[in-house]
Amino acid sequence: MAQTRSIQNADLSHAWLAGLEHRTGPRYLLIADALERAMFEGQLNPGDRLPPQRELAARLKVDLTTITRAYDEAKRRNLVEGRGARGTYVSVPKVELAQVLDLSMNIPPPPAGVAFDDLLKQGVSQVLLRADNEQLMTYHLGGGSEAERTAGAKWLEPMFGRVDPEHIVVCPGAQAALAALVLAHSAPGDVVLAEPTIYPGLRAAVEQFGRQLVCVETDASGMRPDALAKACAKYRARLIYLNPTLQNPTTATMPLERRREIAAVAVKHGARIIEDDPYWLFADSAPPPLSRLAPDHAYYVATLSKCLTPGLRVAYVVLKDTHERQRFISALRSFALMSAPLTTALATQWIFDGSAQQLFAGVRKEAEARHGLASDILAGRPDVAGNGLHIWLPLPSHWTSSELARTAGAEGLAVTPAEVFSDSPHRPNAIRISLGSIQDRKRLAAGLRRLSQLLAQMPRSISGPVI
Fold it and tell me: Coil, helix or strand for 350?
C-alpha cells in the first residue's frame, strides 16, 4: 500500500509542470515558481513526493544542473525537503513562532521571479573585485563619489530625464536626508508647512530641531494652493513638505495641474519644497515631480529602501544650487557622516549593471500581486486598490482606528492607525495596511482574512488576565 501511494504521489506531482514550457525566464526559477504556485493552489500538498531530479530533467529537456538549482531554490524558500535516498518531498509548513503578523512596516515585498540571494552575492562579488577595498572601509565626506552620483542620476532618469550628477548628494537613507534638509534650510522656531496627514518621520525631525509644523488644508487633489498661499504669507515659511505620489499613508497622487499650482505658489513666496518621493516608480503614469516644475525652488528625495531593499540605506537628493547643496552636506555630516561605503558601492554596481532595475521590476510585480490579493479579500471596502507598498483603509463607523489597532494587536495583527500620521482631531478614521513586511504571500492572505473578519465585528472591550 505504501508503495502504491508513493507511485500515485509521483504521478500527481507532475501536474504542476503543465504549461511550464510556455513561460520565459531562468528555467530553474520558473520551476521553483511553478512548485510554489502549485502548493498555493493545492495541487501539491505537504508530504507529496517530487520527481527525481534526473527524471524531471529528462521530462523538461534541461540539464541536471538546472533541476538541482531549482530544487535548491525551493529548499531555500522552505517549499521542499530532502529525505536522502527516499527523494524530495513537499515540506510541512514550519511552525511560525512569531505571534504577530506585521502589516505595519512599509518595506518592499520579496521580488517576484528574482533570485535575490544570487543577485546579492553576485553584486557584492563584483564590488569586491572592482573596488579598492581600503576605500570601502574609510571615511567618505563629499556627498558621494562621481560614480555614485552618476548612478543616482541614472536611477532618477525616469523622473527627470537627464540629471547633472553634480546636483546629486548621496545620503544614508531618506530619513537622514529629510532631517538634514530641515536643519540646513530653516532656523529654530521656523514653520514647516505640510498636509495634515503625513509621514511621521518628517514630524519627528521638525520637532527634534525646534521647528514648528503647520498643516495646510487639502482637498481631493492634495494641498490647496489658496490655503498654501495664505500660510506662506502668514508664517513666512521657508519650507513646504510634500509626498505627492502614492502618498504615505493615503496613497493619493497629486495631479499635474495641482502640482503646477503648488509650484507657482512656492516660487511666488520664495519657499522651498521638500519633495519626498519614494513611490514614484510604482505609480502608473505618475505626473512629473514638482522639482521638475520648479527646479530652483525644490529639493527632491528618492530612496532605494522602498524600491529595492531597506538594507541598502541609500537615498539621492537633488539640489541645483551649489551653496544650498554645501549647506545640506554640512547639516547631514552633523549627525550622519556618510552613507556606508559598501552598501553604496553595491547600489552603484546594481544600477550600472541593470540588477537594480531587474530587482525593482520583481518588487513591483509582487506588489501588484499583493494589491490584487488584498482587493479580493477586502472586497467591497473602499480604497484598497493601488500600486505601492500599502493600503489606506477607511473604517466602518463602529470602529475607531485606535480601537481597531489595539484589537488587531491582541489578535496577532499589527496595523498602523491614523493617529500615527496626524494629531488633528479631524483626521481620517482609517488604518494603513502594509503589504510587504510579511514575506510569505499565504501568511499575508491569512492576516488579511483575519483583519476582514475583525472589521465585520463590533468592538469589544479588551482586558488582560489578572495574574
Answer: helix
**Locate cell 531555500: which residue?**
76
Q: Residue 394 pairs with which residues in a beta bridge?
A: 430
CA of 430: how far to CAs of 60, 277, 450, in Å? 50, 22, 17
Range of the domain at 25: 2-90
Q: Cell 489606506, residue? A: 392
Measured from the Cβ of residue 98, the count of other Cβ atoms closer than 10 Å reads: 8
pLDDT (tens digit, 9 = 90+) per residue, 352-361? 999 999 999 9
Q: Any idea what the CATH number is for the domain that residue 34 is in? A: 1.10.10.10
Shared domain for 108 and 63, answered yes or no, is no
| Cell numbers at 141, concatenated | 565626506
129 and 81 in a single domain? The answer is: no
Q: Which helix (DSSP H) or strand (DSSP E) does residue 356 occupy? A: helix 355-377
Same-domain status, 208 and 240: yes
What pTM value is reported for the model?
0.80
pLDDT digits (tens, 9 = 90+) for 317-346: 999 999 999 999 999 999 998 899 999 999
Strands (E) located in 167-324: 168-171, 191-194, 212-215, 218-219, 222-223, 239-242, 272-276, 298-303, 315-318
Residue 351 and residue 427 in one domain: no
Residue 317 CB partners (closer than 8 Å, separation 6+): 168, 169, 171, 177, 181, 299, 300, 301, 328
**CA 283, CA 279: separation in Å to the nearest integer?**
7
Domain boundary among 355, 374, 397: 355
Work out how many domains the chain is built from and give that number: 3
